[in-house]
Amino acid sequence: MIEAAGLTKTYHRKTVVDDVSFRVDTGKVTGFLGPNGAGKSTTMRLMLGLDSGGGTTTFDHKPLSSYVRPSKVVGILLEAKAFHPTRSAQNHLRVLADAGSIKSSRVDEVLELVGLTEVAKKGPGKFSLGMSQRLGIAAAILGSPKYLLLDEPANGLDPEGIAWLRKFIQDYANQGNAVFVSSHLLSEMSLMADNIVVIGKGKLIADTTVSALISGSGHAGVYVRTPSLSKLERVLRQRLLAFKRSGNGLNVQGVKTEDIGKLAFDAGVPIYELSTASASLEEAYLELTAGSQEYKTHKAGSLGTKK
Amino acid sequence: MIPAIRAEFRKLMTLRSTYVIIGSCIAITVFFAFYLEGYRSTADVALPTKLASAVTSAAQALGLFIALAGVLLVTHEYRYNTIMYTLSAARSRTQVLLAKIVVVSVFSILLTLFVCSLAPWLTQLGLQAKGLSLVPQDFPIFDLLMKSAFYGWGYSMIALIIAFIVRNQVGALGFLFLFPGLGELLLGLLLKNNAIYLPFSALGSVIRNGGAMLGQVPFPLTKSVGVVLAYIVGGWLVAWILLMRRDAS
């Protein structure tokens, strides 16, 4: 288990990571989400001791520096293009293998695993982003570490590569390892992550399971469509139930479909549609991080479309 | 520590620039020692220090080139951000620093010894090709090679310290190309006789057998060595403190 406690980083009096604490469990994939500039990469660098700052991170209750061979404990992918452009992919990995006292035969194994055997002797300077990511993943798993810290590993991968990465990450975690992965692909994250850590403006917003995050979203609940909208609203208010208008109906939170059906029946409210509304991870995430975005975009369609 | 040294050696020997540097050193030695000092040589064949100066000239001419290998070894890491792998794979940052010192020391000493051994041999070959012969030579080879090796090592260490402190490739190379010549020349105008205490002046004094540059007072060999070592030890202390405190980027 990885335990990060009180991680803090200040640049020029601006606190970019502010007392962030969370846990990454073994046997699980923990997703790390946050808007651009939220401090995700800095948090990962703090966990590895690459950046100086406050707080501690332990791997199985010990700091990384107390391990003789740290690359056999944690594998990292923090940047896709972190390699010398003319040193061959194979030599790049051999350097890392030497540094971590890893058998050089493992280099060929991981190259084959990520599908880069054919370009092993080529300089990665001309690799595409997807190929660079694969090389980065090969570097991360070189020492067969118990923990993987991956920062945006799916960037630049094609659909087949993303599917491979998802399966690989899940399999890796299922073998009793822990994977801590950040990504902007929320649909992918909802498919592969068990737990989610969300930060915004350097502060921890959520540390929970994916299912709890989604079920706690305002978008989750029961959707009910009726011609007597105001009558149903009155009934719901009397019962102190939270709801909001959604299209031609209402989205009621914290109840089951049966409860709403019975309530409407008792009140004589006709119902045209009654269904469970589940939020997507994206909806839950956007709801959580609203107001935590460092860099905001204009609403779609608000730029250059004056007529 | 051994894995870190092995990794640094592999890093150095899998860089194209390392082979460009070795090739350039050999080519420059052939040009200067064989062609200029040997084949094109005229009046100075009567000097008893002809071969000795071939050794010291080679070391002085190639000090900067040899030091480049160490500078690139460090600055490439920051430029391409492989430093994050290096530091996260090592148990401590001190280990990384020591491994780089060991590797660059071995590389600089071996390459300096190689080119300095080659130079007098090439000079004689050039002279023979022209049909000239030397007067009996004052040629203390062991002493010359030791001083040359110290010069090459010292140059590389100072360059490596600069690389660790500056971290930026252009900045480190700019400093290395400008400071030993122009920088120390300008500082020498201010410091006058004390200019011999500048790092590259003191280093040059070692190989010139304690001899001084124009306008400088002679400096005993032990004192020159002491000044160079003081700069290296002090420089490493600063570089180590910075490496421990700075972010790895």
Write the SSE topology.
The complex is a heterodimer of chains A (307) and B (249).
Chain A: E1 2-11, E2 14-24, E3 29-33, H1 40-48, E4 54-59, E5 62-63, E6 74-77, H2 89-99, H3 105-113, H4 129-141, E7 147-151, H5 159-174, E8 178-182, H6 186-192, E9 195-200, E10 203-209, H7 210-215, E11 221-225, H8 229-238, E12 243-246, E13 249-252, H9 257-267, E14 273-277, H10 281-289
Parallel strand pairs in A: 3-8, 3-9, 6-7, 7-8
Antiparallel strand pairs in A: 1-2, 1-4, 4-5, 9-10, 11-13, 11-14, 12-13
Helix pairs in contact in A: 2-3, 3-4
Chain B: H1 2-13, H2 16-39, H3 50-79, H4 83-89, H5 93-130, H6 141-166, H7 169-191, H8 199-207, H9 221-245
Specify Rg of chain B, calculated over alpha carbons. 19 Å
Order of helices and strands of chain A: EEEHEEEHHHEHEHEEHEHEEHEH
The largest inter-chain interface, given as chain pair and residues per side, is: A-B, 34 and 27 residues
Largest sheet features of chain A: 6 strands, mixed
Measure the end-to-end span of chain A.
Answer: 57 Å
Instruction: List how many beta strands of chain B DSSP finds.
Output: 0
Total number of domains of chain B: 1
Please work out how many helical segments of chain A DSSP would assign.
10
Average pLDDT, all residues of chain A:
85
List keywords for this structure.
heterodimer, A: 307 residues, 14 strands, 33% helix, B: 249 residues, mainly alpha
Characterise this structure.
The complex is a heterodimer of chains A (307) and B (249). With 307 residues, chain A is an alpha/beta fold. Chain A has ten helices and 14 strands. The termini of chain A are far apart. In chain A, 41% of the residues are buried. The mean pLDDT of chain A is 85. With 249 residues, chain B is mostly helical. Chain B has one domain. Chain B has nine helices and no strands. Chain B has helices at 2-13, 16-39, 50-79, 83-89, 93-130, 141-166, 169-191, 199-207, 221-245. The two termini of chain B are 23 Å apart.
